[in-house]
Write a structure and sequence with these properties.
Photosynthetic Reaction Center, Chain H, domain 2, 2 domains, about 30% strand, 7 helices
Length: about 240
């Protein structure tokens, strides 16, 4: 199922024995556009700490109640390695979390998905690796300027993720620079380059293509019919044909 990330930000996070807070942010790998962590706002419970949860520990969302179940106990989360809120997430922090929870590190040689409960082989080499510069915050990237091959077209307003596997399938572009109120979506596969320092995203499309692409209506779900129309318009191979 495809869901707007903006919509699920703020959902309650419910551990096996108690609520732990609300979803504050998602951290994704900008090489594969896969969500690696969910960041929790724990309020006064764990002040000053950055609480990260692996998507594989999230159960089936309760969309009606706006709840994301977490398959961990509150005490487990409280006793997890502490990451200060103001610090970036380093690879050492990630290695400590994977050791504590028994997650297979996603950066490992076998490419195991994070959240797996398989035993985790660990060496001190993990601790020597610098923080991963490819780990990005959805909240931070929202608002980046979108540039097509011949002009600037708008800004990133939202992301749409597949809730099974938590892969980001689309970026929502507000084209207010050209057509106020009109929104379109593009696949990360159609991005040519990202200038993280300048907060700019260059897409491999012309502004004319974007302006005339199928309109995205946030009030309507992104279903396979809409996706087919989108991919046919751009003449791109459909990602689901290879699944």
């Amino acid at each position: 199922m495809l869901r707007s990330i903006r919509e699920i930000i703020g959902y309650s996070l419910r551990a096996l024995d108690a609520d732990i807070g609300r979803l504050k942010d998602l951290l994704f790998d900008d090489r594969q556009w896969v969500v690696r962590y969910m960041a929790a706002d724990t309020g006064k419970w764990l002040p000053g700490r950055r609480v990260l949860l692996a998507p594989a520990q999230i159960g089936t969302p309760d969309w009606a109640s706006r709840v994301l179940p977490v398959n961990l106990k509150r005490e487990q989360i409280e006793n997890a390695p502490s990451i200060q809120e103001h610090l970036p997430v380093s690879r050492q922090h990630e290695a400590e979390l994977s050791m504590y929870y028994g997650w297979a590190p996603y950066w490992g040689p076998v490419g195991a998905p994070i959240g797996s409960t398989a035993p985790v082989p660990h060496s001190r080499e993990h601790d020597k690796v610098a923080g991963d510069p490819n780990l990005r915050s959805v909240q931070e990237v929202t608002g980046y300027h979108i540039e097509c091959s011949d002009n600037s077209v708008g800004h990133a307003e939202d992301f749409i993720a597949e809730t099974q596997g938590w892969r980001i399938r689309y970026m929502v572009v507000d084209t207010r620079n050209w057509l106020p109120g009109r929104k379109v979506i593009i696949s990360p596969e159609w991005i040519e380059d990202v200038d993280w320092a300048q907060r700019r995203i260059l897409v491999k499309l012309s502004c004319r293509q974007l302006r005339q692409s199928p309109v995205y209506d946030p009030s309507q779900p992104v279903n396979r019919e809409y996706e087919s129309m989108l991919y046919d318009y751009y003449g791109r191979p459909r990602y689901w044909d290879g699944e």
